[in-house]
Design a protein that fits this description.
Layout (H helix, E strand, L loop, with lengths): L1 H14 L3 H9 L6 H17 L4 H6 L5 E4 L6 H12 L3 E5 L15 H21 L1 H16 L4 H15 L22 H27 L6 E8 L20 H8 L3 E8 H16 L2 H15 L1 E5 L15 H15 L2 E4 L2 E4 L4 E6 L11 H5 L3 E4 L5 H9 L5 H10 L4 E4 L1 H17 L6 H10 L1 H6 L7 E4 L1 H13 L1 H7 L1
Parallel strand pairs: 1-8, 1-9, 2-5, 5-8, 10-11
Antiparallel strand pairs: 3-4, 6-7
Helix pairs in contact: 2-3, 3-5, 6-12, 7-11, 15-17, 17-18, 17-20
Length: 495
């Protein structure tokens, strides 16, 4: 039994990106922060390495969770999100502070694992839907043709008669001779049968013509009447100390087994009917048990939970007295991180090998303010550097989704070609850095406010501009923004 597992693990490692390749991919979207990228790349590669080990050793190797320390807007969330997207792993971002707003009456910490499982279920289901798309499209086409050009009543009646005759077929005697209770005489139904056969051929020929029109898109606006499954769900209100997420019962599935599925007729265009029927046919072809099994396995082996604002639950006032709310949530989170089994409506989910990436600014508190047990579960700590003017320049131009490219593309939809010069980019970066220094450091997010204010007039006037080529230089940037930046009180509200 071990040999196929080792083979699968080797294939997993061969298909996985190397740490250097992971960093290179992250560099396409995130500027700087090499140390943080290096840490997450090693953690990701170690997951693939763990798959190479024997089964008993796999359970012993736990993921090396990470704490990212840095102010807002330096790339903490983006690193974790891009990392999960890079390896197509189940990913969820949760705010640690939402578990402390109303203390223990707040949301159950186990809900983060349930939400992660829901994310994985949706992703695997989407993959399965894509896999059965061709079969679903064929079935949808047949159902649409039945709605557009239904089978004539005479042919429907004839097919039912044949089925009944097959059930009442008389038996043969020992010699293989068919024994009938009376003599039929000459067969007077041959002509009628021949007429029905001709009618059937005409029907099939016409049906194929409609099929051709349907594929060419000539019937998209034609209204058709379809039967849509409709199930009236009763309203059930449940009160429990921990909220609805602690309830293990899937009430939707329970009531679907009790209440019969009802169908109602809807008259919709063919284009809309295709979407409805395609969804129904896809659901028929998908094996939900296999989807759930695959999703839970992905969560357990490759799930990533990004726990943001972890500094908000650090016991900052512990020297003045115990903070029950913050320490209580830390102790609730601890079993999830160190490895436990969370019950969801899809089954039990083990958290032993889920990677937890925590992040926080830690301006007032520090990681040492966390309870010692929780500190020990985050062995890797990396500090992200604040962004300077040169970083802002790189963010504006270098990434695949650079802001300069985005804003130019938005204007191009109106037929306006915008050219942003190098000196304009220098000026934007300088203004963003200046506002961060004088008002509050929100990192790269400041660029969004600067760029939005800079392009505000262009976006408003773009549909009516006679001049379709616009050059944005340093002078234009200064004219639009310099007065706002100089006025400290105004920049607090606008930028």
């Amino acid at each position: 039994m071990e040999r196929p597992k080792v083979k699968r693990a080797e294939n997993t490692l061969a298909a996985a990106l190397t740490p250097r390749q992971i960093v290179e991919e992250l560099d396409k979207y995130i500027i700087g922060q090499f140390e943080a990228k290096r840490c997450v790349a090693i953690a990701l590669r170690n997951r693939a390495r763990r798959q190479m080990l024997a089964e008993d050793m796999q359970d012993e190797v736990s993921p090396k969770n990470i704490i990212m320390i840095g102010s807002t807007g330096v790339g903490k969330t983006e690193i974790a999100r891009r990392l999960a997207r890079l390896v197509d792993a189940p990913f969820i971002k949760v705010e640690a502070s939402k578990y402390t707003e109303i203390g223990y009456v707040g949301r159950d910490v186990e809900s983060m694992i349930r939400d992660l499982t829901e994310t994985a279920i949706s992703r695997v289901k989407a993959e399965q839907t894509e896999a059965v798309e061709e079969k679903a499209r064929e079935s949808t086409e047949e159902r649409l043709l039945d709605c557009i050009f239904p089978v004539p009543r005479s042919l429907q009646r004839r097919s039912r008669l044949k089925e009944e005759d097959a059930l009442d077929e008389p038996e043969e005697d020992d010699d293989g001779v068919l024994q009938l209770p009376f003599d039929l005489g000459p067969d007077v139904g041959d002509e009628a049968e021949e007429a029905r056969e001709k009618e059937r051929e005409r029907y099939l020929k016409t049906r194929e013509k409609f099929r051709e029109w349907l594929r060419e898109g000539r019937l998209e606006e034609k209204p058709v009447e379809i039967n849509v499954r409709h199930q009236s769900m009763p309203f059930v209100e449940i009160f429990s100390p921990g909220g609805i997420e602690e309830m293990d019962i899937n009430f939707k599935d329970m009531f679907s087994n009790i209440l019969p599925n009802q169908t109602k007729k809807r008259r919709v265009p063919v284009s809309e009917a295709r979407t409805i029927l395609m969804q129904e046919e896809s659901e028929k072809l998908i094996d939900m048990d296999a989807v759930i099994t695959e999703a839970i396995q992905r969560v357990e082996d490759s799930g990533i939970v990004f726990l943001d604002e972890i500094d908000k639950i650090a016991g900052r006032e512990s020297r003045h007295g115990p903070d029950i709310s913050r320490e209580g949530v830390q102790r609730d989170i601890l079993p999830i991180i160190e490895g436990s089994t969370v019950t969801s409506k899809y089954g039990a989910v083990r958290t032993h090998h889920i990677l937890f990436v925590a992040a926080g600014a830690f301006h007032v508190s520090s990681p040492s303010d966390l309870i010692p047990e929780l500190q020990g579960r985050f062995p890797i700590r990396v500090e992200l550097k604040s962004l300077n003017k040169d970083d802002f320049k790189s963010i504006l131009t270098e990434p695949k989704n650079a802001l300069v490219k985005q804003y130019a593309a938005l204007l191009s939809t109106e037929g306006v070609e915008a050219t942003i010069t190098d000196d304009a980019i220098d000026e934007i970066a300088a203004l963003a850095f200046q506002v961060n220094e004088s008002v509050e450091d929100i990192g790269a997010r400041r660029l969004h406010t600067i760029m939005e204010k800079l392009f505000e007039n262009l976006f408003f006037d773009a549909p009516n501009l006679e001049k379709k080529h616009i050059t944005i230089d340093a002078g234009y940037v200064k004219a639009e923004l310099s007065e706002i930046v100089k006025d400290q009180d105004l920049s607090r509200y606008i930028l």
